[in-house]
Structure formats: C-alpha cells, structure tokens
Amino acid sequence: MARSGADLALLLLGGFRSMADAATAELSRRGFDDVRPAHEFALRAIAGGAGNASELGRRLAVTKQAAAKTVAMLEQRGYVSFETAGVSRRKRLQVTPRGHAMMKQGEAIFEELRAQWEKEIGSADLRKLEEILARLVGSTPIRLDTPGWIAQDATYRTQARPVVDEQE
C-alpha cells in the first residue's frame, strides 16, 4: 500500500531532522555545545549580508525582537560581533572567526553524515535519492537563511509549484 502525501512529507522532514539532530550533537562534541540549527540559519544570513536585527528578522521571517534576541545570544557566545562600517560609521553585524569555525565544522559534519547514509544504503541508491529530490525540488536555490518559510503566507512563495490534477 502506498504511503500518503502527508507520510511522504513527514519522511522528508524526518530525514532533515535526523541529520540536523546528529549534526547538532556532533557539533557539541566538537566544542560548539551552545548552538542549534536556528543559530546556523542566523549565522548564514549574517554572513550573507544581514547587518542588523531588522535585516536578520526579514531574512529569517521572524520579528525584529526575536532576531535581536538571537543576535544578543550569538554575540554573547562569541559567534558574531558588531563592526563599524563605512562613512556612516554604522555598526554592522559580522560573523566572528569562532562563528566561521562553527559553520565550517557543521559543513564537515554534514559530509560525514552523508557518508554514513551512503554506507547504509549504498552509493547508487544515495545518488538516485539525491537526483530524484533535486528533480522534485527544482533548480531554484534553497535559501538556508530562511527557516521561517513554513509560517509565510502562500502568496510570498512565488516560486512554489502548483498541485496539478492528473485527470485534467
């Protein structure tokens, strides 16, 4: 019996959660015990140009207050700092060397987790899984700095694929 569409969505989410949880645990073992996946999203947004809490909030689809709280926590833990930038002398958020080190470790850990999956299901099956998911997701880049997508209004996602009835 075929699984439901909701089951498929939960399997995909479960795959993400499995990898994200394993990566978080391994980051902790490697000395970054104070970060969670949401912090990675924030660091990537800051590295990509979100220079203040307002910009970060827009990129993460959270309130300015929530973004400011995240920034304060990341600054306290040494992952970001404020640097004076340009003629205006405005302070802009920057990822610190510690923040970049954590992001680099995170990338390495995900490569290790991918290798574990490859060992579990085999190279051919993993490659096929990746090809199928890439085909289903499409060529639009996945933004790693926007975890709030799930709460956004559908009109915001202009690239969303419509559901097509096969009987039409």
Automatic annotation (TrEMBL):
Top-rank taxon, per record: Bacteria
InterPro entries per the UniProt record, alphabetical: WH-like_DNA-bd_sf, WH_DNA-bd_sf
Molecular functions (GO terms): DNA-binding transcription factor activity
Name of the protein: MarR family transcriptional regulator
Organism: Sphingobium chungbukense
